[in-house]
Design brief:
alpha+beta
Protein backbone atom coordinates (compact mmCIF):
# COMPACT_ATOMS: atom_id res chain seq x y z
CA UNK A 1 0.00 0.00 0.00
CA UNK A 2 2.05 2.87 -1.31
CA UNK A 3 -0.44 5.71 -1.31
CA UNK A 4 -0.72 7.74 1.88
CA UNK A 5 -2.97 10.73 2.39
CA UNK A 6 -3.15 12.88 5.48
CA UNK A 7 -6.09 15.20 6.14
CA UNK A 8 -6.28 17.85 8.84
CA UNK A 9 -9.34 19.96 9.64
CA UNK A 10 -9.24 22.21 12.67
CA UNK A 11 -11.36 24.94 14.16
CA UNK A 12 -8.55 27.39 13.52
CA UNK A 13 -8.66 26.65 9.78
CA UNK A 14 -12.42 27.15 9.78
CA UNK A 15 -12.00 30.54 11.42
CA UNK A 16 -9.28 31.66 8.99
CA UNK A 17 -11.24 30.62 5.92
CA UNK A 18 -14.41 32.17 7.26
CA UNK A 19 -12.72 35.56 7.55
CA UNK A 20 -10.65 35.40 4.35
CA UNK A 21 -12.70 33.30 1.95
CA UNK A 22 -11.82 35.59 -0.93
CA UNK A 23 -8.22 34.39 -0.71
CA UNK A 24 -9.00 30.68 -0.74
CA UNK A 25 -9.74 28.23 -3.53
CA UNK A 26 -13.03 26.43 -4.10
CA UNK A 27 -11.31 23.25 -2.98
CA UNK A 28 -10.27 24.80 0.34
CA UNK A 29 -13.74 26.24 0.88
CA UNK A 30 -15.25 22.89 0.00
CA UNK A 31 -13.13 21.18 2.61
CA UNK A 32 -14.16 23.43 5.47
CA UNK A 33 -17.74 24.02 4.37
CA UNK A 34 -18.02 20.25 4.08
CA UNK A 35 -16.88 19.78 7.66
CA UNK A 36 -19.19 22.45 9.03
CA UNK A 37 -22.13 21.22 6.96
CA UNK A 38 -21.44 17.70 8.16
CA UNK A 39 -21.91 18.85 11.72
CA UNK A 40 -25.20 20.43 10.68
CA UNK A 41 -26.33 17.10 9.24
CA UNK A 42 -25.47 15.31 12.44
CA UNK A 43 -27.26 17.82 14.61
CA UNK A 44 -30.51 17.11 12.78
CA UNK A 45 -30.70 13.55 14.09
CA UNK A 46 -31.06 11.98 17.52
CA UNK A 47 -31.29 13.32 21.02
CA UNK A 48 -28.90 13.11 23.97
CA UNK A 49 -25.97 10.75 23.36
CA UNK A 50 -27.42 9.81 19.98
CA UNK A 51 -27.39 13.41 18.86
CA UNK A 52 -23.79 13.91 19.98
CA UNK A 53 -22.62 10.79 18.13
CA UNK A 54 -24.47 11.87 15.00
CA UNK A 55 -22.88 15.32 15.16
CA UNK A 56 -19.41 13.78 15.44
CA UNK A 57 -20.11 11.45 12.53
CA UNK A 58 -21.45 14.21 10.32
CA UNK A 59 -18.42 16.36 11.03
CA UNK A 60 -15.86 13.79 9.97
CA UNK A 61 -17.91 12.87 6.90
CA UNK A 62 -18.07 16.46 5.72
CA UNK A 63 -14.39 17.11 6.37
CA UNK A 64 -13.05 14.08 4.51
CA UNK A 65 -15.38 14.10 1.54
CA UNK A 66 -15.25 17.89 1.29
CA UNK A 67 -11.48 17.81 0.95
CA UNK A 68 -11.61 15.21 -1.78
CA UNK A 69 -14.17 16.68 -4.12
CA UNK A 70 -14.15 20.36 -3.17
CA UNK A 71 -17.54 21.87 -3.74
CA UNK A 72 -18.86 19.29 -6.26
CA UNK A 73 -21.40 17.70 -3.90
CA UNK A 74 -23.66 19.32 -1.33
CA UNK A 75 -23.44 18.34 2.32
CA UNK A 76 -26.16 15.70 2.16
CA UNK A 77 -24.52 14.06 -0.84
CA UNK A 78 -21.16 14.13 0.91
CA UNK A 79 -22.64 12.28 3.88
CA UNK A 80 -24.32 9.71 1.64
CA UNK A 81 -21.18 9.06 -0.40
CA UNK A 82 -19.04 8.70 2.70
CA UNK A 83 -21.46 6.23 4.25
CA UNK A 84 -21.62 4.31 0.96
CA UNK A 85 -17.81 4.18 0.96
CA UNK A 86 -17.77 2.82 4.51
CA UNK A 87 -20.26 0.11 3.58
CA UNK A 88 -18.26 -0.79 0.46
CA UNK A 89 -15.03 -1.03 2.42
CA UNK A 90 -16.73 -3.28 4.95
CA UNK A 91 -18.24 -5.76 2.49
CA UNK A 92 -17.07 -5.40 -1.11
CA UNK A 93 -14.41 -7.67 -2.60
CA UNK A 94 -11.19 -6.31 -4.11
CA UNK A 95 -11.99 -4.97 -7.56
CA UNK A 96 -15.74 -4.85 -6.89
CA UNK A 97 -17.26 -1.42 -7.58
CA UNK A 98 -20.10 -0.09 -5.46
CA UNK A 99 -22.11 2.73 -7.02
CA UNK A 100 -24.16 5.61 -5.64
CA UNK A 101 -26.23 8.24 -7.42
CA UNK A 102 -28.62 11.08 -6.77
CA UNK A 103 -31.21 11.18 -9.58
CA UNK A 104 -32.35 14.65 -8.53
CA UNK A 105 -28.96 16.30 -9.03
CA UNK A 106 -27.26 13.87 -11.40
CA UNK A 107 -24.40 13.31 -8.95
CA UNK A 108 -22.81 9.86 -9.00
CA UNK A 109 -19.98 8.03 -7.30
CA UNK A 110 -18.11 4.77 -7.83
CA UNK A 111 -16.20 3.28 -4.88
CA UNK A 112 -13.77 0.44 -5.56
CA UNK A 113 -11.65 -1.34 -2.93
CA UNK A 114 -8.47 -2.17 -4.85
CA UNK A 115 -6.46 -4.32 -2.46
CA UNK A 116 -6.72 -5.58 1.10
CA UNK A 117 -4.16 -6.42 3.74
CA UNK A 118 -3.39 -6.08 7.41
CA UNK A 119 -1.14 -3.65 9.19
CA UNK A 120 0.51 -3.48 12.58
CA UNK A 121 -0.34 -0.07 13.99
CA UNK A 122 -0.68 1.83 17.21
CA UNK A 123 -4.38 2.60 17.64
CA UNK A 124 -5.93 5.02 20.10
CA UNK A 125 -8.44 3.79 22.67
CA UNK A 126 -10.30 5.61 25.42
CA UNK A 127 -11.07 3.48 28.49
CA UNK A 128 -12.56 3.78 31.93
CA UNK A 129 -9.70 3.95 34.41
CA UNK A 130 -10.94 0.76 36.10
CA UNK A 131 -10.51 -1.16 32.83
CA UNK A 132 -7.04 -2.44 31.97
CA UNK A 133 -5.49 -1.78 28.57
CA UNK A 134 -4.78 -4.84 26.41
CA UNK A 135 -1.22 -5.80 25.56
CA UNK A 136 -2.24 -6.18 21.92
CA UNK A 137 -5.51 -6.02 20.01
CA UNK A 138 -7.03 -7.40 16.81
CA UNK A 139 -9.27 -4.55 15.67
CA UNK A 140 -12.87 -5.49 14.83
CA UNK A 141 -14.90 -2.26 14.77
CA UNK A 142 -18.18 -4.19 14.46
CA UNK A 143 -21.55 -4.48 16.14
CA UNK A 144 -21.89 -7.73 18.11
CA UNK A 145 -24.79 -9.16 20.11
CA UNK A 146 -25.08 -11.27 23.25
CA UNK A 147 -26.64 -14.74 23.21
CA UNK A 148 -27.19 -14.57 26.97
CA UNK A 149 -26.49 -12.13 29.77
CA UNK A 150 -22.77 -11.70 30.36
CA UNK A 151 -20.43 -10.00 32.81
CA UNK A 152 -18.04 -7.28 31.78
CA UNK A 153 -14.61 -7.72 33.30
CA UNK A 154 -11.93 -5.17 34.06
CA UNK A 155 -9.35 -7.33 32.30
CA UNK A 156 -9.53 -10.23 29.81
CA UNK A 157 -9.70 -12.97 32.42
CA UNK A 158 -12.35 -14.55 34.65
CA UNK A 159 -10.19 -13.57 37.63
CA UNK A 160 -10.72 -9.87 36.95
CA UNK A 161 -13.30 -7.76 38.76
CA UNK A 162 -16.79 -7.42 37.30
CA UNK A 163 -17.29 -3.81 36.13
CA UNK A 164 -20.67 -4.15 34.43
CA UNK A 165 -22.81 -6.43 32.36
CA UNK A 166 -24.63 -6.99 29.09
CA UNK A 167 -28.23 -8.15 28.81
CA UNK A 168 -29.32 -11.10 26.67
CA UNK A 169 -29.82 -9.90 23.10
CA UNK A 170 -28.01 -6.61 23.69
CA UNK A 171 -26.07 -5.13 20.78
CA UNK A 172 -22.72 -3.59 21.59
CA UNK A 173 -19.59 -2.16 20.04
CA UNK A 174 -16.90 -4.82 19.61
CA UNK A 175 -13.75 -2.70 19.49
CA UNK A 176 -11.47 -5.68 19.06
CA UNK A 177 -10.34 -9.10 20.21
CA UNK A 178 -7.50 -9.28 22.72
CA UNK A 179 -4.71 -10.93 20.75
CA UNK A 180 -4.30 -14.64 21.47
CA UNK A 181 -7.41 -14.84 23.65
CA UNK A 182 -11.19 -15.42 23.67
CA UNK A 183 -12.01 -11.96 25.02
CA UNK A 184 -13.70 -9.08 23.22
CA UNK A 185 -13.10 -5.45 24.16
CA UNK A 186 -16.51 -3.78 24.59
CA UNK A 187 -17.17 -0.14 23.77
CA UNK A 188 -19.98 2.28 24.53
CA UNK A 189 -20.20 6.00 23.70
CA UNK A 190 -16.70 6.05 22.18
CA UNK A 191 -14.90 4.41 25.10
CA UNK A 192 -13.93 0.97 26.39
CA UNK A 193 -16.09 -0.24 29.28
CA UNK A 194 -14.78 -3.77 29.80
CA UNK A 195 -14.20 -7.22 28.32
CA UNK A 196 -16.69 -9.98 27.55
CA UNK A 197 -15.97 -13.69 27.04
CA UNK A 198 -16.27 -14.39 23.31
CA UNK A 199 -18.24 -17.70 23.50
CA UNK A 200 -21.14 -15.71 25.00
CA UNK A 201 -21.40 -13.25 22.09
CA UNK A 202 -21.32 -13.14 18.29
CA UNK A 203 -21.27 -10.70 15.40
CA UNK A 204 -24.70 -9.14 14.98
CA UNK A 205 -26.60 -9.44 11.69
CA UNK A 206 -26.90 -6.27 9.66
CA UNK A 207 -30.06 -4.24 10.19
CA UNK A 208 -31.63 -1.28 8.43
CA UNK A 209 -32.36 1.35 11.06
CA UNK A 210 -34.39 4.53 10.67
CA UNK A 211 -32.85 7.88 11.59
CA UNK A 212 -35.19 8.10 14.57
CA UNK A 213 -33.27 5.20 16.12
CA UNK A 214 -29.93 7.00 16.17
CA UNK A 215 -29.95 7.14 19.98
CA UNK A 216 -29.63 3.36 20.05
CA UNK A 217 -27.03 3.39 17.29
CA UNK A 218 -24.86 5.76 19.32
CA UNK A 219 -24.65 3.19 22.10
CA UNK A 220 -23.31 0.61 19.67
CA UNK A 221 -20.89 1.30 16.83
CA UNK A 222 -23.12 2.01 13.85
CA UNK A 223 -20.80 4.69 12.56
CA UNK A 224 -19.91 3.91 8.98
CA UNK A 225 -17.84 6.16 6.75
CA UNK A 226 -14.47 7.80 6.23
CA UNK A 227 -12.54 9.96 8.64
CA UNK A 228 -9.12 11.50 8.93
CA UNK A 229 -6.76 10.06 11.54
CA UNK A 230 -7.72 11.29 15.01
CA UNK A 231 -5.24 12.32 17.67
CA UNK A 232 -5.47 11.34 21.34
CA UNK A 233 -6.91 14.67 22.48
CA UNK A 234 -9.71 14.43 19.91
CA UNK A 235 -10.53 10.85 20.91
CA UNK A 236 -10.70 11.80 24.59
CA UNK A 237 -12.83 14.88 23.90
CA UNK A 238 -15.31 12.81 21.86
CA UNK A 239 -15.60 10.22 24.61
CA UNK A 240 -16.13 12.85 27.30
CA UNK A 241 -18.79 14.59 25.21
CA UNK A 242 -20.64 11.32 24.59
CA UNK A 243 -20.43 10.29 28.25
CA UNK A 244 -21.66 13.69 29.43
CA UNK A 245 -24.64 13.51 27.05
CA UNK A 246 -25.76 10.04 28.15
CA UNK A 247 -28.44 10.46 30.80
CA UNK A 248 -27.98 6.89 32.03
CA UNK A 249 -24.20 7.12 32.00
CA UNK A 250 -22.70 7.72 35.44
CA UNK A 251 -19.09 7.83 34.23
CA UNK A 252 -16.83 10.31 35.99
CA UNK A 253 -15.31 12.20 33.08
CA UNK A 254 -12.01 12.49 34.98
CA UNK A 255 -11.82 8.69 35.08
CA UNK A 256 -11.36 8.35 31.33
CA UNK A 257 -7.90 7.44 30.06
CA UNK A 258 -6.69 7.73 26.45
CA UNK A 259 -3.67 5.89 25.09
CA UNK A 260 -2.31 4.03 22.10
CA UNK A 261 -2.03 0.23 22.05
CA UNK A 262 -0.40 -2.19 19.63
CA UNK A 263 -2.95 -3.58 17.19
CA UNK A 264 -3.45 -5.53 14.01
CA UNK A 265 -6.08 -4.02 11.74
CA UNK A 266 -7.49 -4.45 8.26
CA UNK A 267 -6.37 -1.88 5.70
CA UNK A 268 -7.55 -1.35 2.14
CA UNK A 269 -6.47 0.71 -0.84
CA UNK A 270 -9.55 2.32 -2.37
CA UNK A 271 -10.43 4.42 -5.39
CA UNK A 272 -13.37 6.82 -5.50
CA UNK A 273 -14.68 8.44 -8.67
CA UNK A 274 -17.24 11.24 -8.40
CA UNK A 275 -19.09 13.11 -11.13
CA UNK A 276 -21.64 15.93 -11.22
CA UNK A 277 -22.65 18.61 -13.72
CA UNK A 278 -19.96 17.54 -16.18
CA UNK A 279 -17.21 17.63 -13.57
CA UNK A 280 -15.22 14.53 -12.62
CA UNK A 281 -12.87 13.81 -9.74
CA UNK A 282 -10.92 10.71 -8.79
CA UNK A 283 -9.29 10.15 -5.41
CA UNK A 284 -7.24 7.27 -4.06
CA UNK A 285 -6.35 6.54 -0.45
CA UNK A 286 -5.26 3.86 1.97
CA UNK A 287 -7.74 3.39 4.80
CA UNK A 288 -7.61 1.25 7.94
CA UNK A 289 -10.46 0.01 10.13
CA UNK A 290 -10.79 1.64 13.53
CA UNK A 291 -12.43 0.25 16.65
CA UNK A 292 -15.53 2.44 16.32
CA UNK A 293 -16.37 1.13 12.84
CA UNK A 294 -15.02 4.10 10.86
CA UNK A 295 -12.31 3.82 8.19
CA UNK A 296 -9.39 6.16 8.82
CA UNK A 297 -7.47 7.64 5.91
CA UNK A 298 -3.76 7.25 6.67
Amino acid sequence: MSFRKSLVATTAIVAVLATSACQTTNRDIGRVVGAVAGVAIGSAFGQGAGKIAAIALGGVIGGVIGDMIGSMLDEQEQAQVSRQAGQALGSARDGETITWSNPDSGAAARITPVSTGTAERRVAIVRDRAVQAPASLEVLGETWITDKSANLRAAPTTEAAVVGGLKAGERFQAIGRVAGSDWIMVGRNNRTIGYVYEPLVRKAPSVQTASTDLDQLAVTDQRVGLTQSRDLDTMLADARTSAAAGSADSTNLDDLVVEEVAATTQCRDMRMEVSKNGENATEQATVCKSGDGMWEII
